[in-house]
Amino acid sequence: MILQIVAVTGGLGLVIAALGLALLWVLRGRSIGITLAVVAVVTVAATLAGVVAITIEMVIDGHPKDVVLTVVAIAGLVGLGVALVVARRLVAVSRGLVAAVEAVSPSRDFVPPPGRLPAELQTISEALDQAYRRLREGRERERALEGARRELVAWVSHDLRTPLAGMRAMVEALEDGVVRDPRTVSRYHEQIRLEVDRLSHMVDDLFELSRIHAGALRLAPRRVGLGDLVADVLAGVEALAGARKVRLAAEAGPALPIRADAEELGRALRNLVVNAIRHTPEDGTVVVRAVADDEVVRLSVADCCGGIPEADLPRVFDVAFRGETARSPGRDRGAGLGLAIARGIVEAHEGAIAVVNEGPGCRFEISLPLSGGPLAGPV
C-alpha cells in the first residue's frame, strides 16, 4: 500500500513538475510575479493531485472524502493567494528600484525606493548606490582633468609662441644680414640654442605628463639608497644652483632603503630641487633631507622662496600652476609641469607629496614606504 501511494504521488508530481518547468522556460523573460505564480500553482497542483488520487482510489470514501477534498482545495487556494500577494509585492519593489535607476541624472543622485526592500533587492540597491557614486566621482575627476588640460594647452601655447617668435626674429635677422657683428651673431646663436633646449625640455615634460595621466607610466622598482639618490640629483643641478648663486645642502643617511624606480623618483626629486632653486634668491640655501620615521621615508626639499599664499597651497601641484604672484619667476621658469609630474611619479610609487610654508620659504615633502632591512652591497 505504501509503495503504491508513493508511486502514484511521485508519478503525478513528476508529470506536473515537468509541465511547470516547461512553462517556466517559455515564460523565462516575463515578470518575476508570473514566475512565482507558476511555482505556486505547480506546488499546489502537485499536492492536490496526489491527495485527490489517493483519496479517490484507495483510502477514503463517502463524506470523509468530501471533507478532505474541500480542505485540500481551500489550502491550495490560500497558498496560491499568498504566492500572488508575495509576487505582487516583489514586482512593485522591483519596479520601484527600476524607477529609481531611471530617475538618476548627471544633476541628481541615486535615491533608493521608499520602504523596506527584501534582502537581495536591498543589496542590489546598495550596489547601485555605490556604482553611481563611483561614476559621479569619475565624472568629477574627468571634468577636473579636462579643465587642467585646457589650462595646460593655454599655458603651453603661450610658452611655445614666445620663444618661437623670438627665434624667428633672430633667424630672420641672421638670414637677411641685418646682424653682422660677430659678437651679436654668436649671442643670437647661443640664445637660439638655449630656447631650443628649453622647448625640448618642455616637450619631454609634456610627454611624461601624458604618460602619467594615461596610466602608462611603467615603473621598474628595485632597492634604492636615498643617500645615493639625493647625491645624484644634487650633482645634476649643481650648475644651475651655481649660476643662480644658491647653496645646496643635503642631510640623508646613505643606507636608507626604499623600493622604487630610481630614474623616475630621481626625476620627481630633481623637479622639486630645480623648482626650489629657481625661486630662492641669491645667497639662499636649498636643503634636501631624507629621514626614516615609522616605516615611512620622508624626503623633503626646503627653500627660501618667501612662502606661498595659503590660498595657493592646494593648487601647487596642479598642471600649469606657477604662482607668479607668490614667486615672481624669471626667464628660466618652466612650463608649470614639474610639480604635477612629481606628484604623478610619487603617487605611482604609492606615496604622497605635500607642501607647507616653513621658515624663510616652503618645504616640499615626499612620503614613501620604507623597505625593511639594511641595504646589502651597492644599489
UniProtKB/TrEMBL annotation:
Enzyme Commission (EC) number: 2.7.13.3
Protein name per the record: Sensor-like histidine kinase SenX3
Classification via PROSITE patterns: HIS_KIN (PS50109)
Reactions that this protein is recorded to catalyse: ATP + protein L-histidine = ADP + protein N-phospho-L-histidine
Pfam families associated with the record: HATPase_c, HisKA
Signal sequence region: none
Organism (species): Sphaerisporangium krabiense
Main location: membrane
GO cellular component terms listed in the entry, alphabetical order: plasma membrane
Entry GO MF terms: phosphoprotein phosphatase activity; phosphorelay sensor kinase activity
Keywords, sorted A to Z: Kinase, Membrane, Phosphoprotein, Transferase, Transmembrane, Transmembrane helix, Two-component regulatory system
Gene3D superfamilies: 1.10.287.130, Histidine kinase-like ATPase, C-terminal domain
An example Gene Ontology biological process: cellular response to phosphate starvation
Source organism, top-level taxon: Bacteria
InterPro entries: BphY/WalK/GraS-like, HATPase_C_sf, HATPase_dom, His_kinase_dom, HisK_dim/P_dom, HisK_dim/P_sf, Sig_transdc_His_kin-like_C
Keyword 4Fe-4S applies: no
PANTHER family: PHOSPHATE REGULON SENSOR PROTEIN PHOR
Location of the protein in the cell: Cell membrane
Segments traversing the membrane: 6-27, 34-56, 68-87
Enzyme class, spelled out: transferase
Residue ranges of every copy of the Histidine kinase domain listed in the record: 155-372
Cell membrane recorded as keyword: no
